[in-house]
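Whiteboard transcription, Tuesday session. T.W. wrote the structure tokens on the left side:
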């Protein structure tokens, strides 16, 4: 029994990633390491030190709020995309394991009616996330 889902089909066409997904992978790798944190801390220090160069504190605060809001929104979208792809990969792995297990159980279920019923239930469950 072969399990087909969107994640598996996309990997059959080369590496299955478009330009955006490769970009997300690079950004996720950069953001999830300590240097990104240090860069953000340095930007905040520069922002705090720059207060005397602004004509008003309102504009000074607005600069930080606008920049952090835009950065947060972009990172949220990118990290959500990375999480979705990770979830799809995990589902595919579980489906392959369940399919292999059901095949093994089916080979042993010829004499055991309960095991045959379990095989049927397991095979129905494979790909369940695609039906809901």
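and on the right, the sequence the group agreed on:
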């Amino acid at each position: 029994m072969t399990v087909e889902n969107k994640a598996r089909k996309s990997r059959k066409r080369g590496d299955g990633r478009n330009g955006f997904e490769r970009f997300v992978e690079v950004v996720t790798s950069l953001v999830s390491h300590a240097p990104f944190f240090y860069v953000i801390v340095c930007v905040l220090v520069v922002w705090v030190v720059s207060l005397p160069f602004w004509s008003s504190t309102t504009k000074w605060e607005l600069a930080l709020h606008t920049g952090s809001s835009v950065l947060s929104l972009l990172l949220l979208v990118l990290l959500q995309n990375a999480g979705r792809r990770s979830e799809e990969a995990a589902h595919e792995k579980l489906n392959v394991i369940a399919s292999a297990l059901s095949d093994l159980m089916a080979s042993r279920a010829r004499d055991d009616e309960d095991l045959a019923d379990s095989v049927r239930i397991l095979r129905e469950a494979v790909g369940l996330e695609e039906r809901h």
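Someone added at the bottom: The CA atoms of residues 84 and 90 lie 10 Å apart.
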